[in-house]
């Protein structure tokens, strides 16, 4: 039987979400070991990868469990007991056998949190601190990412995607309790794409880059900036399936 699992995690202590040959300290590596101890020997599949230090508030995965785990409440309790405090189960439910955490997803939403207050050690892993921030410039420029674009110049080198066209449905900024929060919702993202986009926005905020240069890079004419924003401010916020919004 197929199980759909929604989890939150603090990515600061992990080397990313995907399983790796060089380390077991990844979110899926940890989860795979926990499932194995419960007699579930199929690998969990995530909606997408998050890089080292990136967090998630609602990452979705699926795995196939044997029939003796028909009591889903007991499965949630047993699995939660196997996980560290940095990983929390938000929801666990049965899914159709053709459900796929990655390929069934219609939209992916990420959040990026910025603060221009004095840095403090208690938020160092969770927020990106900048010395100054021009919210008006960021709020204007972020809208330029909306629509379908070729994001070849906004991806990490060495990526092996078949094509780089992605559609961003929403891209906007707002302020909340002293933080500037950036929202990106799309049908998919390239590796490090969001951090590179935020890095460009921070350059515009600081007066080092312009909206004209952003459009030139977005149109694959010229590369003006390849410096990504730090990973600690980035969160995978929501995965949307079906026709829900």
Describe the structure concisely for a colleague:
About 20% of the residues lie in helices and about 30% in strands. It has about 240 residues and is α+β, with helices and mostly antiparallel strands. A hairpin with a 2-residue loop joins strand 8 and strand 9 (about 180-185).
Give the helix/strand class.
alpha+beta
Largest sheet: 10 strands, mixed
Q: What is the number of helical segments per DSSP (H or I, 4+ residues)? A: 5
What is the chains' assembly state?
Answer: single chain
Q: What count of structural domains?
A: 2
CATH homologous superfamily of the largest domain? Pseudouridine synthase I, catalytic domain, C-terminal subdomain
CATH class of the largest domain: Alpha Beta
Terminal CA distance reads 27 Å
Number of strands: 10
Q: Which topology of the largest domain does CATH recognise?
A: Alpha-Beta Plaits
Low-confidence stretches: none
The percent of residues in helical segments reads 10-25%
Overall mean pLDDT stands at 94
Output the helix-strand order.
Answer: EHEEHEEEHEEEHHE
User: Rg to the nearest angstrom?
Assistant: 19 Å
**Strand-residue fraction?**
25-35%
Silhouette: globular
* CATH architecture classification of the largest domain: 2-Layer Sandwich
């Amino acid at each position: 039987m197929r199980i759909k699992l929604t989890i939150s995690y603090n990515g600061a202590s992990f080397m990313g979400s995907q399983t790796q040959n060089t380390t077991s300290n990844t979110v899926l590596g940890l989860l795979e070991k926990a499932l194995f101890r419960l007699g579930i020997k199929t690998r969990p599949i995530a909606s997408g990868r998050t890089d080292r230090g990136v967090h998630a508030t609602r990452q979705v995965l699926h795995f196939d469990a044997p029939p003796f785990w028909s009591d889903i409440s007991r499965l949630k309790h047993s699995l939660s007991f196997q996980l560290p405090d940095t990983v929390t189960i938000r929801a666990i439910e049965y899914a159709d056998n053709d459900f796929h955490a990655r390929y069934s997803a219609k939209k992916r939403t990420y959040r990026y949190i910025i603060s221009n207050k004095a840095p403090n050690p208690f938020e160092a892993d969770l927020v990106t601190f900048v010395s100054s921030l021009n919210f008006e410039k960021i709020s204007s420029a972020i809208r330029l990412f909306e629509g379908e674009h070729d994001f070849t110049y906004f991806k990490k080198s060495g990526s092996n995607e078949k094509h780089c066209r992605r559609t961003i449905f929403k891209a906007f900024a707002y302020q909340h309790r002293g933080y500037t929060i950036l929202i990106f919702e799309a049908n998919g993202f390239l590796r490090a794409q969001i951090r590179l986009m935020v890095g460009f926005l921070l350059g515009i905020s600081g007066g080092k880059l312009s909206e004209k240069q952003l459009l030139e890079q977005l149109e694959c004419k010229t590369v003006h900036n390849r410096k990504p924003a730090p990973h600690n401010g980035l969160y995978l916020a929501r995965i949307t399936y079906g026709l829900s919004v």
